UniProtKB/TrEMBL annotation:
Coiled coil: none
Taxonomy of the source species: Eukaryota, Metazoa, Ecdysozoa, Arthropoda, Hexapoda
Organism: Rhamnusium bicolor
Family named by the database record: Belongs to the HARBI1 family.
Keywords in alphabetical order: Hydrolase, Metal-binding, Nuclease, Nucleus
Alphabetical list of InterPro entries matching this protein: HARBI1-like (IPR045249), HARBI1_dom (IPR027806)
Protein name per Swiss-Prot or TrEMBL: DDE Tnp4 domain-containing protein
GO molecular function: hydrolase activity; metal ion binding; nuclease activity
Amino acid sequence: MVNCDYDLRFLSINPAHAGAAHDSYIWRMSRVKTELERCYNEGDRNSWLLGYSGYPLQPWLMVPFQNAAPNSPEDRYNQRHALARNCIERCNGVLKTRFRCLLSKRTLRYDPETVGDIATACAVLHNMCIAANVEPPPINNVEPENW
């Protein structure tokens, strides 16, 4: 599970389960959920996370409406939600252009824990590149379906 901000900086990364657990389980066990829940319980009503439909709706977690009727307010919300959530797709895409070893067609021949450490290190280096205004390589050599 990864989270990023609008500037495509990773805010958190949890590679612990590496596809071996359902997203809702990872969410329930995450420090991000615990922290957002704590902030909400202490009165913060101005912090939200955008999640996809696999996550449960919570006061601090905004997810799309299921089966929204076309042109309804719910459908318009879903469209805007998707636009805003697109930053995580872009963030992952930029990460993979910087660190091509993370592309889906590449294989990191290490144990899952080491692969998680490599992904985390790449995310940290990615954030350092953003802080230093280092432009990512051109994206034209990376196919979107590999993100």
